[in-house]
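Notes taken during the Thursday session

The instructor put the following on the board and asked us to keep it in front of us for the whole hour. The protein is Gram-positive cocci surface proteins LPxTG domain-containing protein. We were told not to look anything up and to reason only from what is written here. First, the residues (1480 in total):
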Amino acid sequence: MKKVQTLVNKLVTLTLVSSYLVGGVATVAAAQDVAVDSTSVSEVVEKTETTTSSQESKTDSQNITEGEKIATDNQTLKKTDESIEPSAKKEEKDTTKKKKTVPIQILGINDFHGAINTTGSAYLDSKLSNVGKAAYLSAELDNAEQQFKQANQEGASLRVQAGDLVGASPSNSALLQDEPTIKIMNRLNIKLGILGNHEFDEGLPEFNRIIEGNAPIKGSVQDTEIINNYPREKSNMKILSANVLDKATQKSPFGYAPYTIETFGDVKVGFIGVVTDEIPNLVLAQHVKDYTFIDPAQAIVDNAKELRSKGVNAIVVIGHTGASGVDASLGGETTEIIAKMNQLDPENSVDAFFAGHSHTYANGVYQNVRVIQGTSQGKAFSNVMGDIDVETQDFVDTPKGVVSPVLTDKSTPASTLKPNAEVQAIVTDADERISTLVNEVIGKTSDGKLISRDVNNANEQESALGNLITDGQLQIARETFKDDNTPIDFAITNNGGIRADLQVTDNGDITWGAAQAVQPFGNVMQVVSIKGADLIEALNQQFIQHYFLQVSGMSYTFTGEVSKNADGTTNDTRKIKDVTVISEKGDKTPLKADKTYKVVINDFLFGGGDGFAAFTKGTLIGELDPDTNIFVNYIKSQKTVSAKVEGRKKQAAASNEKEKNLTILGTTDVHGNIWNYSYEDNKEAGNGLAKVATYANSVREEKGKENVILVDNGDIIQGTILTDDLYNVNPDLLKLEHPIIKAMNVIGYDSMTLGNHEFNFGQDVIKKLVKEATFPLLSANTYIKKDGKHLVEPYTVVEKNGLKVAILGMTVPDVPLWDGPRVEKLTFKGLEEEAKKQVKIIEEKEKPDVIIASIHAGLDNSRAESAAINVVKNVTEIDAFIVGHDHKTIATKIKDANGVEKPVAGSKDTGSEMSRIELDMAYNDKTNKWEIKTSTVEDVNLAKVEADNAVKEATKEAHDATIKYIKEEIGQASDNFLPEQQVPGIPEAQMAPTALISLINNVQLKATKADVAAASLFKADSQLNKGSITYSNIFDIYKYANTLVGVEITGKHLKEFMEDSAKYYNQYKDGDLTVSFGGSGNLDSKIRVYNYDMFAGVDYQIDVSKPVGQRIINPTIKGKPIDDNKEYKLAINNYRYGNLQKNGWVTKAPYFDTDPDTLRGLIASYIKDKKVIHPKDEIVTNWELVGADGLTHFLRPVMIDAVKNGILTIESTPNNRTPNINTLTINDLIEKDLVGRVSVSTLEKDIQTAEKLNDKNLKEMLKTAKKVLAEATALNSQLGSARDDNGQAQAIIDQYTKNLQEAVKKAENDGQTDPIVKLDLSNLEDVLVKANKKEEARYEKQAWHTFSNLIKDATNLLEQAKKEASSTKITQKQVDDMTKQVTEQLATLEKHVINDNTTQESTEDTISKEPQEISDSVNNQSGNSSSNSKTPYIGSQSKPTSTKNLPKTGEKKQVYSIIGLSLVLGTSTIIYIKKTKKVA
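Then, after some discussion, the predicted structure tokens were revealed:
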């Protein structure tokens, strides 16, 4: 809820008080008169000096004359109070009183669907059966209103409905075209309604006819006797429709209003109506072709703005948009709309949202908006209540909401209310009118016998009638959605919805009534998109709830049985084993857990009815008629029907103990991501352990938990603000269970391998993780030097479905290169060496059936001991591999030394993907061992997988703490620290010096007092933009938790380090238009973005045209060449320090080390200290790229536009760790036909002309023009006889030509004799007139001497300038400079007055000044020391007034009237009108 600010009229008071609080001066001069002796009057507007914040302000006697009065505390406040509008004063008084409010109640229903006499089950906080019926609904609404008004004597109540009032209705409304429903809504006093998708079922004109109470159009399908004879009524409802526009008029159709304002006594409420913009996907195209459906969120904010402009701040939305869940679990389309509304207009002032469409129960507050939905079909209603402030015209708080069931005489508990007799009479009349239709014959059974609803047995629960019903639902759904290319896979219904056998007459006929008795509820059939895993979960819920389902389009088998325990309770071990999808053509394929399917179910099941909560995980994508209508229409279409038990649901045969399946799931490099949320970007993301949990659980459902292993491959506790800045380092948070481990425990991991980043925070953190985890942490090749023991377990063994599975964990042994001192007490053995050792131990000691290796290392590495590929190929006993570290997607098979293909899997980082390996095992009777018969390996993308709520709930405290942390402002950036990319995809920070890299290096130099610093760009898309800087920004520019070290390095090694860094650039060649990155290696060995350093403290050039090792040009430190033998101090991070050690460039221990404090923390502290950082202050332009003329080639703009338009592409490595790996060339432009031959003849001639002038001002432009000419000539030569260019390339040439022509013309004009210029002498003349009025006697001798000499010089200059013959020798600048000197000397002279009697002259000067001069004068005074004029601040004592500037006899000065007041940064400014009266 958003409060309206209405206190503008308190501005003056607020400013005065603010000024007082900051110690400033606020002065109000009271108007008063003194006796007048004479009549000569002059007036002038004068601005007083700006008052300062100093509380030592004094009264300046020069500015206070006798008769003036300075208001102090009480006078000031009194005068100010008098100037405030009476309404504002009243408002201020009212703050001490209780605000006047009006209680409001809004009662609502949604998705009524003509259910005038329908009962069913409603799932609110618990299941309620036999609820509904319009007569009872009427009684409930009346009772709710009565109770509200008894409790709130001044309260008001209103009733609304949220769409789908008609359509998909039971027969007693549907067969009468829902006209009984309209009559009943009038009796229910529903005042406001909106459109739903079903209002479009027969076209909006037909719906409008119904609510207008008009007869059917002659000849229409509705033009039947039964409908024509019905005593219809016009609806009393006002229809609201803000986001449906008639294409012809661009207005709401049929005059429906987008919003309405309802008045309740002294308050007003605005109601806006919207409908889901998915309607075109839900309704026949012919019924929506004339309408445009705009974004509901946009429609709401637009109309809310209009309402607010009319003074309406209490706003309620009635929306036919889905919602489900209670409080924190609220979700659905409605919450998405609210989130978007608040993005579009945070001040939208929407307080409540009545939802519909999804037929589910919803009630809670989402982003300060009450969201509520009362199931459907009149089985419940919504009751929203709140108080509206009369003054603000807004709800005082977010309204409360209750969803209540509509109890009946058959419900439990039973209703105590009397059903509305008038409503019941309408229902009875409708039933009687359709009675003849009920006996209509609609088909027959093939054998003339009834079709039974009985199930075949208690175990399988298959029903012949259930098969007929679901077959009909599936067929009609497929026909309905055929044109939309939406394949429908299954139909499912619940046994409880089949209420009777399908009876036949003596001759086998089926009547409409008999079919309706089978499916009497009129449940709306819905098409739902649902994951295979959720479908399996729903099928398994049969065995938990013991409510069973009938299916079509699938068959399934299950294992287990139902038995009785000793205490008489039931033990049900049944579980779905296999599900087979049966296509429309009869093809059979296995159901996949991660695939999305389309299923037809009734709205009862979709809402979680009968305990089938898994169905609520689906997404509604379409609707059909009620189940009754579908069943009737299916029988009519078939004419003759038959059904039998077909074995769609069968007990699985006893399992073959000779064959088993093992599923291995793996994650790697999750890097601290738990929620699907990016703390760096402060928004949701498509990754994280919560998504991993959902997928893992779905596979466990699919395969059985006993057949699934889940391992993590390391680098999981580092990488986000949550981990690196809080839970890995904060002493208080370290006392709590680590949120990563908490999440992994919830998910149910079997093991975790240590990655290199697990060592970033020291061994104490690792020991803490070991204690907290319910699974083992592994690293076989990490040893403690002191005792030779493992730091953690080398392997673990788990049993899965009778298989003994060993999991071996190993860590890339390069950790000491990166974490140095943190691991100095540890030893890391080579991977292959350790794997062979451990496999031997495992086989001898554990005798496993399967060995899995989880290796935190890339397949390839320049160091053999660090390459996982060597383990894959040479340790043949291992059956499957999970690898990582490289953040690459790997799903392959690699042959080992014996020629056996082994599955190898690795996934991208952050929990955005995970790996899946399937091992099909067979038992070999000869060897008495399990063997792998077949294997598969795949990578699973988690982008579209929902996040698991259990994981999020377990880690919510940590998530909330991180959100709070990242929102803390640590400083401000005065401007962007990175320029906009010239070429999209090429980071500017690696093309030239930028303020961003300079900032990092400046921090490093300041902390270490080093000579040189080196820093890299950690992410190609890092940004530090103008505005607030938070910790998320720091994390974005410095991703890793590195520490800062200071080391000593020789000049020789420093240059080698710089050359090594410069190999990042690919060598420039003629014809290149870009300089690309990554070096010469293949995709897997490209130099990563964060391994290229840029240096500070050293000036240098990088010649990218030179080969690697010869690129650093002219490196100097403090203007001197780098001395090979001298040692320099170098500031780098600990990761780079490890690399320098590895290369032998640094041998000594660091002289400076911030461990455990991170460099990221130093950057944050640096910004905090400065408060505001300025790019211009940080940037150091000490290096540049040279040797790449293509960077200024005239065709470069053509290339840039081609990239921006997607014609050319700047590529990155698959893992996105190296940007800009491909060079764009002139050939690329030619191949894409982006350039042709250009005409350069005119440019060539203009160059020749320019050369003849030999004008030094043309030198640079001529040089550029010659370069362009050479480039264009070369292009034409390269193109040969190609087409002429008539596009961008020629336009560029033409522009260069034009620029040169204009420069040549100017040069020619400048070469001519200048005409005599007439000088402007008026200002000098004026100031000399003033100067000559000064009298020597009034001023100090020395001051007058200086002044008079200057006046002589000025007079001489003026006389010379007036002589026509010499006017060309004196410039206007000389005249202006002299004018300025005389003006300044006049002001200086007044500081040396020896005669105090100056009032008259000062007054005359003041009167004669122009307004700007007066303003300047005042400003000059205010800028002087405390001896200058000051006005007392509120609360100060009046000071004695000097006699200076008092009026002379007979003279009077009068009132200051306040005309304006402002407060800027603690400084008050008061504008006065000063009236001066003086004796003639």
